[in-house]
TrEMBL record:
It comes from Paenibacillus antri. CDD domains: OAT_like. Belongs to the class-III pyridoxal-phosphate-dependent aminotransferase family. This is Diaminobutyrate--2-oxoglutarate transaminase. It is an enzyme of class 2 (transferase). Pathway: Amine and polyamine biosynthesis; ectoine biosynthesis; L-ectoine from L-aspartate 4-semialdehyde: step 1/3. Keywords: Aminotransferase, Pyridoxal phosphate, Transferase. Transmembrane segments: none annotated. Its cofactor is pyridoxal 5'-phosphate. The keyword Membrane does not apply. One of its GO terms (molecular function) is pyridoxal phosphate binding.
Amino acid sequence: MQTLAKTESSLDIFEKLESEVRSYCRGFPTLFAKARGYTLWDAEGTAYLDFFAGAGALNYGHNHPALKERLVRYIMDDGVTHSLDMATEAKRRLLATFDEVVLRPRKLDYKIMFPGPTGTNAVEAALKLARKVKGRQTILSFTNGFHGMTLGSLAVTGNGFKRGGAGVPLTNAVSMPFDDYFGDATDTAAYIERLLEDGGSGMEMPAAVIVETVQGEGGLNAASFGWLKRIEAICRKFDMLLIVDDIQVGCGRTGTFFSFEPAGIRPDIVTLSKSIGGYGLPLALTLLKPELDVWSPGEHNGTFRGNNLAFVTAEAALREYWSDGALEAETIRKSERIRTFLTDMIEKYPALQGAHRGRGFIQGIACGAAELAGDVCKEAFARGVIMETSGPSDEVFKLLPPLIIDDEGLADGFARIEAAIAAAVAKRKGSERE
């Protein structure tokens, strides 16, 4: 009979009992047991630098001491855990802090909706509300956009593989080319505007446009600020709502709290999830301009809208990191280090056929050679770095470390990632010679 320790250290149980749909564990085949800051340890004690950060859900790292202390104290004091949408002290504190620390300093006037615990809940609420307000069915989305895995969110997602899993037609959405989709050949904002103004284009007037400023899953395509401003202007011209999906690239991932701030735009609706919970606990918010708050009580509902444990850590994270500009300044500074490292790798390893993608703490290299990005990630894991691919063909390897990573951690990660690039390139050259 196997001992408990031996059973716990085995991956066999996952193969035997868990669905084939599991994904990340295939790229990182070890049994993780402990995490702190930007480091994970497996059951054998091997340490891994986390350049994945829960797909952007861990901007403040694993088990942040200040957030953990607040969470444990709340639990030990018998604080409310589950409350549907009832009023609780934890929710009151989060609402007040979000208004004080995030909205008022940016002169933003949003009502806050708790749509459910995940990002796709926030998107579904945004799409439903836009259709209700405008009385139209169509949502305009973009090539390579990703907005979630439930049917409404999937309809505005570009990835063919993920869309194919729906099993039913995905309707009431139209996909338009993202910024620079055709390179310099076509001005995609002008293209969209022309279709909307032409009564013969066959396009139904959309209720809203949904856009990511940086396409986190779609290949780290970063929209120019000028293009974003033009999309906003098109929304105003044609009486459409502008929805910015900031689920992966918000909460400081690009430097500013909201990724759209440098572009100078004012979305009608904003979706937040992932790192808004602070500690990795599930939480999502849909922010909406007050005049759009036309919901009837209970018209959009969900059992787990009241995740008070996440309210506690979210409020603590906002207080800890967004009461001043220190984290933003450090993120911007370190972002330049990431950019410099990646551009150096493109120059040093021409076999990557690389192009730089992204901004802030979500950057990577698009590899021209097929499957090379995946090979780099495999070699990185073998060297103790967790990182993943992005893009419709997994052609981009991306760096997504927690915002709290220090310069020493970045330097260590860069050294290991360069070794992984060198190994992947060498193996590719060796196989080509055979």
